[in-house]
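LAB NOTEBOOK - FOLDING QUEUE
OPERATOR: T.R.
BATCH SIZE: 2
PURPOSE: Compare the predicted C-alpha cell outputs for two unrelated chains run back to back under identical settings.
PRIORITY: normal
REVIEWER: second-year student, initials M.K.

ITEM 1
FIELD SEQUENCE / FIELD STRUCTURE:
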Amino acid sequence: MEPALFLSKLESPRKELLLAIHGIILQTNKKVVPEVSAMMGKEMIIYKLGGHFIYALSSVKSHMSLHLMPIYGSATLHAKYVKLLNTAKFQKGCINFKTAEEIPLHIVKQLMTDCNNIDYLAIVEKYMAGKKKPKAKAKA
C-alpha cells in the first residue's frame, strides 16, 4: 500500500493531521523514502534513510504516534521537545498525541529540521561497526 492510500483511509481529523505531518517529513528531508509496513504489530508509514528506519507515523485506536530515531538517540533533542510539546505523551523514541493541539505543526516542522541536523546514517554506521563479530583468537 502506498502512503497516500494509507492516509486516505483514515477518518477526519486524523487524516488531515497525519497528511500534514507526512508532508512536513517529506519537505524537510528529501532523502527519506516512505513505505507502509508493519512495525510493533501495527501498519504504519515507515520512513527510511539509506535503507534504515528513521521515522514512522501511525494511527491506532486511542492515539496517533510520530516515531523519531533522532530523539531516541539524543537526550538534548528529546528534552527540548518534551518542553515544547508538553501536552503530548513522550516515550523514548516517539510522541503520542490525540489532537492537533497537542502537536502544533510549526513545532513539528522545527522538530523535523532539528532531527535532520543529526547525521543519523553516521550513528547507524557506528552502531553496526560495533556489532561486527570479534576476530578469532590466534592459536598459541
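ITEM 2
FIELD SEQUENCE / FIELD STRUCTURE:
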Amino acid sequence: MFPANLGDYLSRDHLAHVVDEAVEHIDLSSFYKKLSTVGNPAYDPKMHVKLLFYGYATKTCSSRRIDDKVQSDVAFIYLAGMQKPDFRTISDFRKNNVCELRSAFVEIVKLCRALGMTKLV
C-alpha cells in the first residue's frame, strides 16, 4: 500500500524532489509543440524530462536502466507519477528531443545556480 504521495517515501532533501521542482519551473513548451494529436495520448514530456535528468544525475543514463528503475526504484516511480514508459519510449523521446533536452538542461543549471545549489567553474 502506497501513501497518498509517493514522494513521502523520500527524504525532504532527496535529489528527486529537487529535479521534480526544477522541471516544474522551466519552460517545456518546445516539447509540447511536438506532441501529436493523432492516436493515443503520449506520455507527458515533463515526466520524461524528470526521468532523464534524474537518471543523468544518478548515473543511470541508458533507457533500459531507466526502464528497470521505473519498475523498482521509489525515486524513479515518484518522478514517473507511477507510469511505466518502456525503454523504447524513453529512448525515442530522448532521440526526438535532443535540442530541447539540451536547452532544458541549461535552464535547470541556471536555476540551480541562481538558488546557490551549484557553482560553475
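REVIEWER COMMENT (ITEM 2): Residues 94 and 115 are 27 Å apart (CA to CA).
FOLLOW-UP: none requested
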